[in-house]
Amino acid sequence: MKIKRILAAVFAGVMCVGLLGGCAGQGKTAESKAAEESSAEERSAKKHPTGEMRGLSARAYADEMGIGENLGNTFEAYWSSTSNKTTGASTIGADTPLDYEKCWGAVETTKECIDGMRAAGFSTVRIPVYWGNMMADDGKYEINADYIDRVAEVADRVLEDGMYAVINIHHFDEYIIKHKTKEEALEITGILWKQIAEYFKDYPDYLVFEGFNENLGSHQMEFDGQGKEKGDAVTLTEEETYAYVNEMNQKFVDTVRATGGNNAERVLIASGYWTNIDNTTKDSFVMPADTAEDKLMVSVHYIDNAMYWSRNVGGKKWKDYTESQCELLKAAFIDKGIPVFLGEQTSIYEDDKIVRGAEITESSELMKYEMQKALDYGFVPVLWDVNDNFYSRTECRIKSDSDAAVIKELAENDKSEISKAA
C-alpha cells in the first residue's frame, strides 16, 4: 500500500495524547464536555439530521461537493494488535471513542473546527473510519454503539454547516483483506456496511458513503508472530485480482441499497484498484451494477503521485504527467457520466519533492495547480491532511495565509462556474 503523504509526527511515539481541543486556546467547549459526559442512551436518543433526497444526478452532486478536506489520522486511527484476531486493534486507554480519536495526535474534533473548514471554503469533509475500534473480539464484527455515535456527531456538524460528509471504511479494509480469505472478506464487508448503512439510512443526501480506502487490489498475506507480513498467502492472477476488486465494490453497493430508506438513492463511491489511476482506468476495473440510476462515483488518489515520489514536482514533466492522468480518468469515467472523487490530494509540497529548475516552486502554487486541474476536469479534489498540518484544528483556520488565499479563490471560482452552468 502506498505510504501516506503526510505522517503525523506523533504516530510512532505518542499514544493516547490528551491534546487541547477547541480553538484559539479555548480548551474544550461546553458542548464537547457534555458529549463526553453523556451516556450512550442519551447520545443514541439525539435527533440526527433527516431529509428528503433531492434526486440529483451524480454529476450534480459532484459539482456541489466542490473542494474538500480530510479529517485524517482521527477516526481511522487505531493501535495495532497481534492478539485481537477480529479487528487487529488494541484497546486504548479507557476504551472510549475519544481515546481512539486522539491516539495518533489529533485533538477532539469540535464544532468550531468544522465551522472553520466551512469558512475556509471547503464544501466537503471526508471522515475516514476504522470501524474495528472498540469492537469485541468475538468474530461477530458488531460496531460499537458509542463509537458510531461519535462518528455521527462529527458528521452531523458537517451537515449542519451545509457541507457534504463522506464516510468510508479506512485501514480496517486492509486488515480484513490481508488477514481473511476472499470469501470471508466479502462476508465481513457486508456485515460492516449493513450496520453503517442502517444507522445512517435516514440521513439526507449530503451524506455520502465511500466503500473503502486504498487496499482493493491486495489479497491475503502470511504474517510472522509480530504481525509483520511475510509474503503472499494466496497468489492471484491479475484477472482474479480485478474480479476480487469488482466483487468488493459490488458487495458494498448491494449491501447499502438493500437497507432502504434514503440509502436506496444515496450517492455511493466505488473505490479504485489501490486507488491508483493507471490500475483503475483499465477495462478490467468494472463499476458496480446499481439499482439506483446515476448515483455512483469512483475514487482514486493523487493525480501527480508518481511525480511526487520521484521528486519531480513543479516542472514540465510533472505538468504533462498530471494532464495524462486526468485524461485517463476523463476517458474511463467522466466521458461516461461517472464523476471522479479524488479522495486524497496533496496539501503541502515539501522542498525535497520539487525538481531542480522547476517552473513552480511554492507549495501553495503547486497545490493550486493540481487542485485547479482537478476542478477543470470535473473531479472532486479532497486534500489529505492531519492535525496541525495544513489546517489547524485548534485555531480553526488554514495555517498558511497563502494556502488560505488559494483555497478561498478556488472555492469562489468553482461556485461561480457552477452558477454560470446553471
TrEMBL record:
GO terms for cellular component: cell surface; extracellular region. GO terms for biological process: cellulose catabolic process. Residues 31-53 are annotated as: Disordered. Residues 1-21 form the signal peptide. Residues 31-44 have a biased composition (Basic and acidic residues). It comes from the Bacteria. Keywords: Carbohydrate metabolism, Cellulose degradation, Glycosidase, Hydrolase, Polysaccharide degradation, Signal. GO terms for molecular function: beta-glucosidase activity. InterPro entries: GH, Glyco_hydro_5, Glycosyl_hydrolase_5. Residues 99-389 form the Glycoside hydrolase family domain. Belongs to the glycosyl hydrolase 5 (cellulase A) family. This is Cellulase (Glycosyl hydrolase family 5). It comes from Ruminococcus albus 8.
